[in-house]
Write a structure and sequence with these properties.
Length: about 180
């Protein structure tokens, strides 16, 4: 099996001092990932590994590599948690389950065949009380234009027009 890991970590996104995170590098991530992968691989028999690897049921591979335990989901019985959940633990981090940066829409050049690079990222939230999360998501992606669309009630309209209040609800780490 050939394994390729590409880790992008632009230098201008230095969150140290803002939030308490360990020093992360491509090397430390790769080492942790490989330890977690080897630990998972050792837990499976050759036949069971082959079954998961060759399965046309994507959820078997995702359960092994991506997902972490929830009240309604358990990983394969051979392991306690997925390779990525184990990697996060090894790095001293919390693994956020799911796909947290699923954007509602992206706009790209007409000459592109894929979604990357994004020119415009769009989040649409009909409940303005949840809009802070959508703005944080937009601030976590790199593109020329980030668009957040929401609807506000008259009772909150005056407060939400105040730029200082909006900066406050987003948090100083993004200001």
């Amino acid at each position: 099996m050939l394994l390729r890991i590409v880790v992008a970590r632009p230098g201008h996104h230095n969150f140290r001092g803002i939030i308490n995170i360990p020093e992360l590098t491509a090397k430390t991530f790769c080492e942790s990932f490989l330890r977690a992968h080897d630990k998972a691989r050792a837990a499976f028999t050759k036949d069971r590994w082959k079954e998961i690897w060759n399965s046309h049921r994507k959820e078997l591979w995702n359960a092994l590599m991506l997902w972490q335990p929830t009240p309604t989901f358990r990983p394969p019985e051979e392991i306690e948690r997925s390779v990525l959940a184990e990697t996060a633990s090894d790095l001293g981090l919390e693994y956020g389950n799911g796909e947290p940066l699923r954007l509602d829409a992206v706009f790209v050049s007409k000459q592109q065949e894929t979604w990357s690079p994004m020119l415009v990222a769009i989040e649409h939230e009909n409940d303005c009380r949840e809009f802070e999360l959508e703005v944080r998501k937009l601030l976590s992606v790199r593109c020329q234009l980030k668009v957040g669309i929401t609807y506000i009630f008259k009772s909150t309209a005056k407060r939400l027009r105040n730029p200082e209040y909006i900066r406050h609800i987003i948090g100083e780490e993004w200001a």
